[in-house]
Structure formats: C-alpha cells, structure tokens
Amino acid sequence: MSEETVRSTPVLGIDIGGSGIKGAPVDLATGEFTTKRLRITTPQKSTPRNVAAVVGEIVDNFSKIIGDGPIGVTIPAVVTHGKTRSAANIDKSWIDAEAEKTFEKHLGRDILLVNDADAAGIAEVHYGAAAGHPGLVIMVTLGTGIGTAIVYRGVLIPNSELGHLEVDGQDAETRAAASIKEKQGLSYKEWIPRLQRYLERLEALLWPDLIVIGGGISKNSDKFIPKLKLNAEVVPAKLLNTAGIVGAAWLAADRQIHPDELR
Question: Which 8-state DSSP code applies to residue 43?
C-alpha cells in the first residue's frame, strides 16, 4: 500500500489507560483529530479480553470514518513483537500475553500495539515540541510513574523504561514522578531537586539534544522547567493528552507503509 494512500485516510488511534480508554481518528497530515474523541471507562477487571471488548466499541463507533485501515493502540506496558511484557495500572494477566493477536482476533483488523510513552514520543517528534528535530530526543512523561521514549532522527528506540533508573539507590519514579509530588504534598521547590537529579542521571547516560517533558504536570511547566540546569534543551510537550492517540495512529500507518520491517 502506498504511503500517499495510507496517510490520506484518517487512522484510528486508541489510548488505553488505567482509568479510561480513549480513541479518535487522526489526520496524519496535521496530527489533529478529525472528530471528537470517544472515552469509555476502563473495565474494573482490565484483562486483555475485557479491554479488547471496549476497544471494539470504539472501533465500531468510528468505523465509517476509518474504513478498513490499520488501528494503533497504546498500552501502559513494555511491548515486544506484539507481546505485553509488563503491566502498569492494568491487570497482571497482560504480562507475557499475546496481546496484539488478542486484539486482532477480537476485531478482525490489523492492529499495532505500542507502549504508551513511545507513542507519545513519536507524536511529539512528528507534530509537537520536537517536530523536525535532527538529533536525539528523549520524551519523559511525568505521571503515576515516569515513562520515557527515545527517538533518534525520527526513529523510535522502543521500550526504554528509563523511569526505573536507579538514582542514589532508589528507583527514580518512586522519587520524582508527578504522583509522588502529589502524594507527599511536595512543593515545586521541594520536588524540583528530585527531578533535576533524575534528569542529570539520564543525561549522563545518553546525552540527548532535547528533552521533552510530558504528562499532566507539563501544563505547569513554567513552574519547574526554567529552574532545571541541564546541558540539553528542556521543553514542555505540546500535544498533552492527545499524544498517545496521535502517536499510535502514526505508527500503525507507518507499519502499513513498511510491512516487511521486523515487528
């Protein structure tokens, strides 16, 4: 299938979270939704089968818009060759599950399953804060945990999981995630040194050209990004809560264009 054909039709992106499953068709020329997104509450028992049923409702809702095109789905888990290797804020039955095949069997469609932070990183590189950047970009999402995505010259290096770096003897996300700031009632003045220390460690290992900060707390980026002292430029994400959907759609289309690449 030609690139022009794939990218000229809206592609459905679906973002699976611990509390909600959201989807919308994406115009890949602009990275914008072609219509209002649909959100359905994540099933209380969020097994692959139960989640696939909800994803099916979202697909049915947009079927007239997307036709028989590919669908991109994000998941808060490590994904290798269609298998989910971990489970963050979803049922533990996802661990080592043939998740992509489960979706394809339930929906009867071609599905691209991707880690949620990786999808957000790709979206920011193609449509957001890192659009057109020629070097090494690291996306850091600060939320319940810390998610990361590494993109070099537009190519994703998947499943980095760098939120779990050991920093000063502790798992970084247990000290610097946005949820920890909220849970412990930390002021920005108290939390910023923790984030600074984590990003220093990240920078010392990878030396990125640009760090993009995402997650809900990025809406308040003026309260902490100017106070960070790093070699790399640090900027807030632009796409916010649309990034997962947009990135999933872009990656699903890209696999249609390059079907012979390793899955």
Answer: P
For the chain, the straight-line distance linking the first and the last C-alpha, in angstroms and rounded, comes to 17
**Strands 136-142 and 210-214: what pairing?**
parallel
- Euclidean distance between CA atoms 183 and 187, whole angstroms: 11
pTM of the full predicted structure? Answer: 0.93
- Rounded Cα–Cα distance for residues 233 and 86 (Å): 31
Superfamily of domain 131-237: ATPase, nucleotide binding domain (3.30.420.40)
Rounded to 10 degrees, what is the CA torsion of 84, 89, 93, 96?
Answer: 20
pLDDT tens figures, 3-35: 665 567 899 999 999 889 999 999 999 999 999
pLDDT 10s digits, 125-142: 999 999 999 999 999 999
Task: Supply the CATH classification number for the domain 3-118+242-257.
Answer: 3.30.420.40
Rounded to an integer, what distance in angstroms lies between the CA atom of residue 14 and that of residue 25? 9
Dist. CA 103–CA 109, nearest whole Å: 8
- Residues of the chain below pLDDT 70: 1-7, 260-263
The Cα-based distances of 150 to 73, 86, 135, 222 in angstroms read 19, 19, 11, 24
- Which residue from 156, 138, 164, 134 is spatially nearest to 247, judged by alpha carbons? 156
Cβ atoms of 23 and 13 closer than 8 Å: yes
Give residue limits of the domains in the chain: 3-118+242-257, 131-237
CB atoms within 10 A of CB 109: 16
